[in-house]
Fold this sequence. Notes:
Layout: E1 4-5, H1 6-13, E2 16-18, E3 24-25, E4 29-30, E5 41-43, H2 56-61, E6 66-69, E7 77-79, H3 83-97, E8 102-107, H4 112-123, E9 129-130, H5 141-146, E10 155-159, H6 167-174, E11 179-182, H7 190-193, H8 196-203, H9 205-208, E12 215-219, H10 223-226, E13 235-240, E14 245-252, E15 257-263, E16 268-276, H11 280-293, H12 298-305, E17 317-320, E18 326-330, H13 336-350, E19 355-360, H14 369-382, E20 387-391, H15 397-403, E21 411-415, H16 418-427, E22 434-438, H17 445-452
Parallel strand pairs: 4-5, 5-6, 6-7, 8-10, 8-11, 9-10, 11-12, 12-13, 13-14, 18-22, 19-20, 19-22, 20-21
Antiparallel strand pairs: 1-3, 2-7, 14-15, 15-16, 17-18
Helix pairs in contact: 4-11, 11-12, 13-14, 14-15, 16-17
Amino acid sequence: MIDLTLAEIAEITGGRVVGDPSVLVTGDVEYDSRKIGPGGLFLAFAGEKVDGHDFAAAAVERGAAAVLGSRDTGVPGVVVEDPLAAVAALARAVVARLHDLTVIGLTGSSGKTTTKDYIGQLLSRLGPTVALPGSLNNELGFPYTVLRASEKTRFLVLEMGARGVGHIRYLTDIARPSIGVVLNIGAAHIGEFGSKEGTALAKGELVEALPSTGVAVLNADDPLVAGMAPRTSARVVLVGSTGSLTASGVTLDAGGRAAYTISDGVRTGTVQLTTAGEHQVANTLAAGAVALAAGMAFDDLVAALSEVGIASERRMDVYTRPDGVTIVDDSYNANPSSTSAALRALAAMGGGKRTTAVLGFMAELGEHEVSGHAEVGRLAAELGVDRLIAVTGNAGPILDGAAGVAGWRGTGLLAGDQAAAIEILRHDLRADDVVLVKGSRYRTWDVADWLRRPEEVQPT
Length: 460
């Protein structure tokens, strides 16, 4: 963050200074007292289970210059009525002072975090870039990321999540992007949005926020995304099988990694990705369009796309054990679109090996819960996945969907929880198996951790 005194922070947030107003915050903002560094600002939130104010003194002992919270904790700081609103105000003020900063925002139903990682890696070749690992895309994570920018930062890459109309508009009011990316519209959070059209209405708030001098990168192969073009005054760049930046001739190697020909309509090049899954083609193409808009040369982009990789954990993280078992850890989150993409990658990586998909419950599907799970089960069977392990009863329709596919010779098993899934694998895991683990943050990643270290990891 840029250096600010407590007096300046209080003025920005409408708060009250505790202690010396001239105290200078020179470090990063953190809401975990264990991560605070010298000169940092500790954000104290009163949660349902843990009250951050109780850790204020510990944060100062670790080097924090001050605390921003809703009550006086006896250490230097600023007291505000609403810490979350105060953090947003602080982030808004910091962006306003960074005149040489280019803000990139991206949203979509799936692939946001991975694409954000790609964009960050590409832009870091052009100048100092902030693109934090993980899915920091909500009312706290978004301004937290913004506040990592400083006078040296040239590019700030921001992921934007939404669970309703107005959410992305709120985030763009904190930091208005000049380059915006919409990846896709799927069934993620459809329980909140009601329909894909409702999702598109909310996600399109990003392109509406772009200035006329900005750039909107839209997926040409998703009609709901391509249809957002009239909603922006910015220059529209369509990417996909058609458009301004295209991918063609896609092939997959034995590791499920895609190669494709990229073209801007004038020049072409060959990209060989290091990450698994054909869906990474669309993700890297969108990232490439951002890099070109930011000034990267086409030939440099072709070379760079063949080098970018996964920066955030549990997202198509491929690991091969000494006994030859390959694990595809995509367990951070799941929806029908992302699970379908992961299943296609699993099938491509099979290559005559036995394939197993451990699939957890997909949350926030609303009335589409049963059909959404059945849909991925059908796809798994159609792709010839050998074993399906559905974790928890709510994921049971996955097995029903698979069973309805005529000619599927695979096996479907229902595990009551993660420990039960681990036991199934413990008793029937063969050398050279390929195992995908996918779920909606319901600790399905315990299975992936056990697969990596079967003798050390106990399920939680």
